[in-house]
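Folding Problem: From Residues to Backbone Shape
Fields: amino acid sequence; protein backbone structure tokens
RECORD BEGINS BELOW THIS LINE
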Amino acid sequence: MKISRTRYTATLLLFSLLTPQGYLFAAESAFNPNYLISDQEMQDQQSMIRDDIDAFLQEKGGYIATLRTPDKDGTVRTVADIIYRAAQEHRINPKYILVKLQKEQSLITDPNPTQKQLDGATGYGINDGCGWSCATYLANKGFGKQVDAAAGIMRWYYDHANSEPWIKKANAVYAIDDTRITPANNATAFLYTYTPHIQGNKNFWSLWQRWFEQVYPNGTLLQADDGETVYLIQNGTKRAFSNMTALTSRFNPGMIITVPASELARYSDATPITLPNYSILRQAGTYYLLAFDEIRPFESDSVVRDLGYNPGEIIDVQPADIAFMNRGKTIKVATAEALYGRLIRIKENNNLYFLDEGILHLLTEQEIAAINFPNLRVEPVSITDLPRPVMGNPVLFKDGTLLLPDGSSKVYVIENGKKRHIASEDVFNGLGYKWKNIIRTSEFTGLNHETGEPLYLRSDAPSDVPEATLAIQEIPVRVAPGTTVPLPANNTPDTSLGIENLMVRTPADQTTYIGERFETNIETYSIADAAGNVLAGKNINFVRPTASLAKVMTAYRLMQEGLPLGSTQTYDPADHKATYHRFRVDAGEKIRNRDLLDAMLVSSLNTPVRMLVDAVEEQESIFVNRMNDQAQAWGLLNTHFAGPSGENIDTVTTAQEYLTIYMRAVGNPTIKAVLGKKSYEYDEVLDLDGMPHHFDSHTNDLIKDPSLPFLIISSKTGYLYESGANMMMQVQRKTDGKEFYILTMGDVDHAHRFDETRRIAKWAMQTF
């Protein structure tokens, strides 16, 4: 079956860029005992926030979804909170903990576990020798302790693998269950250290694959980029459509997503879909109406005749053709309503309903009717014409529908009546969804759909990471008007040892502290009060690349020069395309300046910077000169801007001087408000590619963490290989409302870039 389609090159590109080494082997092959999950996955502590964990537990429906129980310290917390805290403290993926809880004691799905299951939740300390009487288990008995110990031991393995010879290691050969196993990475080796059995780890792998490796939800239509068959994803399997009629009688072909053949290979084959929806079937003298995967028997053949069906339209089937289908209610009356129901609009309240066998189901949106009942026309009726109708549940959008409720920046996909948040615009594009298929709905309709698990790509690209390192060069530092000097030679990044060694580092003999000292591997930190007085700091006068922190000064100058927020800019790739161009926009499309400001400061995208600068100054170099003049006017002699976005490593500042820039900038209420947004959404004013909608979350994940002892008023992140991860936050302590500015620069561990800033900020709240 050949179906016209658009090839989604963005999908292919993102899947190739975002998958860790070994992914394709794991995806396309059966269980490989030498490779279970990647080290990146094992240590991805940011893969789920607390709300995501809670949604996952609620979705699975086990007893622990609503359980409150003591954590490792005896404080009673929800299970989601216990899992989240353990994952963050030990820098281990919360998905790992969830799989362990199911693998060891079936706690994710068990509706009525025993106390013994809860006490030995992750199997920590229980071994083949002493079992449930092991001293290590007894010392870690209880749900909270078990969760913490399971996450903690994985981190301990990573920290001690080179000093403890008994910990299994990557690329070494081990005899496990009389089989030679060579772990391909540390994560696999550590899983065998924890559970020294192949079957136990196969169970772990199977759960991980089923829960976290399947991406596309029920109701998704997929087609391989090199194939013609369209498949319906259903219950983790793929069902082929045998013909066009079988497809179009159920779904809109415009919803088809083109994916690599390797993606389809992830799903096992299930029963093909061969018959058109709403067909009349005949088997052994009995007639049925086919409604999706349900067959409704007719009371007699006379009912079929009375409906006026031509015998040539009736399809004869074999028992095997319908054996897997659910049997619905018998059709006794020869009316169209009995077959399909009716769409009616009641005159007295103007509401839309689906009437099925005397039961009224409210439709809160006209779009629900268009998607769920495309072949039914709306009939205006009076309530007096309905014989004592009974109210049923509202009609929900069918699986696979894309939803954008009013008042929300989140786009959802519907699965099993629940809305699953698509985590970001990158995820949306990476999965190949089409922006034109998003349905805008009321907030009420959105609330009618319960919240399910969020939807992610299997591996997330860092939101602020460049695709390639910039050329290494000396960094000019402004020391006085008109003069520059290079950084000392021992501060030049070393390119010979890998990306992590490109970061500018403070020479050991130049490391300095101010105030109370906080031990951290971050190169620079600064803690200041609301007046800008530095309370504590490390290397605050050492010159470092700003990366995207520079965009705050750009925003300040844009506002000073009268940026018209309500006006639009037209994207011209010849003038506006920036290094690390990750902005989804086509030539000629128009976007409001206020929306470009969100994209620049919240998403930290570079291309919107060039578009905004063009709105106030045709020559970007002249605008950059004014940025440098501004820095000079403020007395910032060690700050220099080589461009407006920070993408060049010769855009530099110090922590002390950047504090001045940031405080001046957030004095502007517009800039402060944008830097404080958790997320945003907007539509292009002129859309040319059928994808007008944009949405994203703040690049600082901490802004979404309600458990912190402070509120984040505003924030900006930045990252280059040479700068390391940078972050500035304006925060307010919850206990007394006192405000602080917390800046970190030079964190080489980008994958865990929020950890140290979180620790420093918490320490500041306790200390000052």
User: Anything to note?
Assistant: The CA atoms of residues 589 and 687 lie 5 Å apart. Residues 1-29, 459-499 have pLDDT under 50 and may be disordered. The longest strand covers residues 710-720. The chain has 27 helices and 37 strands.
